[in-house]
Write a structure and sequence with these properties.
alpha+beta; seven-stranded mixed beta sheet; about 50% helix
């Protein structure tokens, strides 16, 4: 069962006093099991986005401590900044990451809000998926009037807080209010312009954002036009699930379009960027780059890399690292300051500190294999050799996609390179998993065996581990054998001066299949469940024979061409 993980992204109304920012962010790490991922201050907005992740109960405890500390250190009566705000901790969204639904996250948002209201005396509203009425779903409605309008808002029956005091007392005058939510992953994303005009930045924001712009009788002036319900009539913007405004950032000396991308499955970052660029050009402006506030999922960066590679008619079958470089440069994410993927991509920040075999250098891997320990062994080496083999096939596909005169076939080679990358990644994952599987057997043998119950538990653990240690090399066999299709295609359709590279790839894949088959056979003999054992051995024999046949066919083909 997956561990339940949620992300919390409180935005505090302080972006200039580093001592205060650090003191507030530091309380996150006082809660066991919560990982502080990012602290991103903005001077012009006078606002800092703090990001942390963990299991739900731990996360809302950390969030409570952040809200409490911010209320102690920030005086809203003295606050000013470019960004809309109404509280020391202005917003505090909870975002499901894994093992938890949005509906479950909303329950934790309500639990947090109730505690904030009772123990801290801070009034607040639930928005997005935690909202208890329709008009409160939109954060802009909850925050309308900002801090300066809070005194009137709190006593308005229509805007009675969901929690906390419905009065602007001395404590609230200092802390302001807060909005708490459960929401999908949101990307705070700013697009940079070659202008200082916030009015022109706003015009582009109105072109793009879902809410668009209000209609006026004379186009941009005169009487506001109303719809049949008496609400302002609007001209919709180009993109769904996008909120946006324009502003001038003194810190950088430029105007920006500040977006909230509320559903990146509907409108991803690269589409918001491209549409902003089109609108800017139509208005005589130019987009110079962009800025990511807080963190981003790896998939969003890879999707952006793929998008720009397609526009360039280049192969998508390149490494994850290269795709991220393409995304960074194409979006201009390093326009204002350096962009470090290890600090901005959420999956990279969540990586454990434990070292993997595939993270070693080539010489380091060889030294680790040659050492006195019995793992890594033949299974891990077979997977690694298979990864090298399909990497050669992928290389030929990528080189072929660049070949002069073959421009109309770039997608054909790109598709093969993408397949090759998928096989390679699977085999690399199996390098470490084969060693992990072996270690599970060792752990089983180390279990106590004094009582009958302990003996039975030990027996079951060893059987389960042995089955797993047979399944992993079988997966190596399957994957390496299937990967031969990449090399076979490139032998026939790829650059012929890379014939030897594709051929070596096939030989590596065949070695991976045979080596992994040895492991399947040696582990299967110890499995007590003979039905399972005989079945996997029969399937393994078929894969083995297929790999040998492909190797023979390829050798004959290469010899005929040389």
């Amino acid at each position: 069962m997956n561990k339940k993980l949620i992300e919390c992204v409180p935005n505090i109304s302080e972006g200039r006093d580093i001592a205060k920012i650090n003191a507030i962010a530091a309380v996150v790490e006082t809660v066991e099991g919560v990982k502080l991922l990012d602290v991103d201050p903005g001077k012009a907005t006078n606002r800092t986005v703090i990001t942390f992740v963990g299991e739900p109960e731990n996360v809302i405890e950390a969030a409570f401590r952040v809200i409490k500390k911010a209320a102690e250190l920030i005086d809203m009566s003295k606050h000013s900044g470019e960004h809309p705000r109404f509280g020391a901790t202005d917003v505090c969204p909870l975002v499901p990451i894994s093992g938890i639904t949005l509906e479950e996250a909303a329950i934790f948002a309500h639990k947090l809000g109730e505690r904030v209201g009772k123990e801290l005396g801070i009034p607040g509203y639930y928005y997005e998926n935690a909202a208890k009425e329709e008009k409160r779903k939109n954060l802009a409605n909850c925050r309308a009037g900002e801090y300066e309008g809070l005194k009137e808002k709190l006593v308005n029956p229509e805007w009675k807080p969901d929690f906390g005091p419905a009065e602007f007392n001395e404590s609230v005058a200092k802390s302001g209010a807060i909005a708490i939510s459960a929401r999908d992953f949101l990307i705070a994303y700013n697009v940079n312009l070659n202008t200082t005009s916030s009015r022109r930045a706003n015009a582009i924001a109105f072109d793009i954002r879902e809410a668009g712009r209000v209609k006026y009788e004379n186009g941009v002036s005169g009487k506001m036009m109303l719809d049949k319900n008496g609400e302002p009539d609007r001209i919709p913007g180009k993109l769904k699930a996008v909120k946006g405004i324009g502003w001038y950032i003194e810190e950088y000396g430029i105007a920006q379009i500040s977006y909230n991308l509320t559903n990146i499955n509907i409108t991803p970052m690269h589409i918001a960027f491209d549409e902003s660029e089109k609108s800017a050009i139509e208005r005589g402006l130019r987009v110079t780059g962009s800025e990511l506030i807080g963190l981003i999922p790896l998939k969003a960066m890879l999707d952006a890399g793929d998008y720009f590679l397609r526009k360039q008619q280049r192969s998508l079958g390149i490494s994850e690292e290269e795709k991220i470089k393409i995304a960074v440069k194409s979006l201009g994410l390093d326009d204002l300051k350096p962009f470090n993927p290890n600090e901005k991509i959420i999956e990279y920040l969540l990586k454990g500190d434990s070292k993997k075999l595939i993270d070693l250098t080539v010489s380091g891997f060889a030294e680790e294999t040659a050492a006195e320990s019995i793992a890594p062994g033949g299974g891990s080496i077979s997977a690694y050799v298979g990864a090298l083999g399909v990497s050669l096939g992928t290389m030929v596909a990528n080189l072929s996609s660049h070949k002069a005169g073959w421009d109309d076939k770039w997608e054909f080679y790109s598709d093969w390179a993408v397949k090759g990358q998928a096989y390679k990644n699977k085999l690399l994952q199996l390098v470490d998993e084969d060693t992990n599987a072996f270690n599970k057997i060792i752990d089983g043998f180390r279990m106590p065996k004094t009582t009958d119950e302990e003996k039975e538990a030990r027996k079951q653990a060893i059987e389960k581990a042995t089955i797993y240690a047979t399944e992993i090399p079988f997966q190596v066999m399957e994957t390496a054998c299937d990967s031969m299709e990449v090399m076979q295609a490139m032998l026939k359709e790829g650059m012929q001066n890379s014939l030897s590279d594709a051929g070596v790839g096939v030989l590596c894949a065949r070695t991976a299949v045979v080596g992994a088959y040895f492991n399947v056979r040696i582990n299967a003999k110890d499995i007590k469940d003979r039905v399972f054992a005989e079945d996997i051995l029969a399937k393994g024999e078929k894969i083995y024979q297929k790999a040998i046949a492909v190797e023979q066919e390829v050798m004959e083909y290469i010899n005929s061409k040389m």
